[in-house]
# Entry
Amino acid sequence: MAGVVGYQELRRPAAFALRTLAVAACYFAAARLGLLCRLTAQSAVFTPVYPSTGVALACLLVFGLGCWPGISLGAFFLVLSLGPPGPDVVGIMVGNTAGPVCACVLLRRVGFRTDLGRLRDGVALVFLGALAAMLISSTVGVVSLLLAGKLAAPHFWSTWLAWWVGDAMGVLLVTPVLLVLWEARRPPSAVRWKEALALAVVTVVLVTAATHSTMSALFLVYPVVIWAALRFRLPGAMLCALFASVMAAIAARDGVGAFARLSPVQVMLKLQLFNGSLALTALLLSAVITEQHHTRRSVEEACKELAEVLEHLTAHGSPAGRAPARAQPRRERGAR
# Structure
C-alpha cells in the first residue's frame, strides 16, 4: 500500500509537468501560426486572429485553472522567438495569462457549459470571454511595451485596438472549435459525411472566390455559414467561419481581392469587422439552432414517456372499470 501511495504521489507531479509542457507547446505553435498572417497599421504589428488566446481559454475550461503555468511558459517562449527579451517580457506573460484566466473565471461564474448547447453560453463567450476579459491582456501587454520604450505614445491606441481585437477573435473563432472537438463522441453517419464533403467543397471554392475577388464579394460567405449552422450546428458553422477568416487574413496580407487599394488602417478595420460579424453569426446562430434541437428532443422524450404511462394505465385500469358494469344488472335482478 505504501508503494502504491508513493507511486501516486510521484505520478501527480509528472502528470502536471507533462500537461504544462503540452499546453505551452500548443500555445507556442498556435501563436507562430497566427503570426504568419500578421499585418502592419501605423507601425503596429498585429494578427487579425490570435489563436493562442483561444487555445489558452479552451485549455483552462477543459483542464481547469491549474494549467495556467503552461500558458505563461508558452508566452515566454514566444517572446524569446521574436527577439532578445527585455523588461516587457514579464508584462506580456502576465497579460497573456491573466486574460484567459479571467475569462475562464467569468464564464464559470455564469454557469458556462463547454458543449455550447445554449444561447446563453454563446452570449457569455462573446461578451465575457472575448470582449471583456481580453481587455486585460491587451492593456497589460501594450502598457508593458510602452514602459519598455518599444512603443511610441502616439501609436498606443492603434496598437491596443489591434491587440484587443486579435485576442477577442482568437476566443470567438478558435475556442468553440476546440471545445467542439473535445466534446465530440461519435463520427457522423455515411449520409452526413457526403453532405459534409459537399459543404467543404462549396466552402473552399466560394470562400476563396469571395475573398480574392475584386468585386468585394465577402457577403457570399454568409450563406455557407448559415447552411453549415442549419445542418451541422456548431462544428460546421465554426469550422467554416475559421476557414473564411484565415482566407480573408491571407487576402488582406497580400492586398488582393476585397482588400486591394486600401490603406493599412482600412485593411485592418475591414478585416476585423468581417471577422467579428462572421464569428458572431456562426456562434450565435448555431447556439440557437442547437438549443431548439435540444428542446424539441426533450419534448419528444416527454411525449413518449407520457404515451407509455397512458398505455400502462389503460392496460391495467380497463378490467376494473368493466367489473362494476357487469355486476350492476345482477343486483337489480336480485332486488326484483
DSSP finds ten helices and two strands in the chain.
